[in-house]
Amino acid sequence: xxxxxxxxxxxxxxxxxxxxxxxxxxxxxxxxxxxxxxxxxxxxxxxxxxxxxxxxxxxxxxxxxxxxxxxxxxxxxxxxxxxxxxxxxxxxxxxxxxxxxxxxxxxxxxxxxxxxx
Amino acid sequence: xxxxxxxxxxxxxxxxxxxxxxxxxxxxxxxxxxxxxxxxxxxxxxxxxxxxxxxxxxxxxxxxxxxxxxxxxxxxxxxxxxxxxxxxxxxxxxxxxxxxxxxxxxxxxx
Lengths: 117, 110
Description:
Strand content of chain B: over 45%
Strand content of chain A: over 45%
Structural class of chain B: mainly beta
Distance between the termini of chain B: 41 Å
Order of helices and strands of chain A: EEEEEEEEEEE
Structural class of chain A: mainly beta
Helix content of chain A: under 10%
Largest sheet of chain A: 7 strands, mixed
Oligomer: heterodimer
């Protein structure tokens, strides 16, 4: 089946630094990728929809200048958490939509755990 | 707006017990319904799905039937194993957006 990878799997950084998380579709092309955030013992919340070659669409309440999204190719989207603070610590999960699948399936990455000290 | 409600956990069962995790949804149009499983420290893995009313999704002994009349998609398994211990998320997809339930943690004891 289709595989989505994320890098890094976990990252620890100091407050005020920026962190970049990569999401790759390994064996299919994805014009659309999605970024989610999961707080401990809670569900996934959609942060933004990443569109290849155009600006991302952010959900209400998500700061676009805080969470920069770039979708420069059909297999790669990046999420950069700028000037990270401890409250940004979370599990970030991406998904990619396979247009070649029967039902435009979405496949999820394994997640990236961000800890901001 | 669209939303998913699932039973709160944790659910603790003995091995070989019967499992039901309730899930109901609210949505406009004709959503697809999913169950995902998340093992500790990992991302979500698709467990099963149903794309239209009365469809039954099944995988690894788990089943769920898309009931439009009751807007439900309850997850069932006849005999759980210790390896089934994980967090289970019910989700719907509508207009290419996913909406997740809050997750139900399942603990299966030997």
